[in-house]
Amino acid sequence: xxxxxxxxxxxxxxxxxxxxxxxxxxxxxxxxxxxxxxxxxxxxxxxxxxxxxxxxxxxxxxxxxxxxxxxxxxxxxxxxxxxxxxxxxxxxxxxxx
Length: 97
Known about the structure:
Elements: E1 2-10, H1 11-14, H2 16-31, E2 41-50, H3 57-73, E3 78-80, E4 84-85
Antiparallel strand pairs: 1-2, 1-3, 1-4
């Protein structure tokens, strides 16, 4: 089975001026009682994980935490999103191990 670990680029962390703009907007919204925070970014790529069996919920959480730890240690403005099953295009086959 294959799973994808999507990587999310947080533009507010990557570009100081964007971060300052978002901080200012969020402060203004908070003054009006809006608790949600604006974030600007997007998915920029994925890691592929191949397993013999579907990972448990706890294993999925641990995998995501390990990827996030490595990203933080390297100083990258990225976040690992929750694992998802890798989609297989029509006409392609997945390899089982």
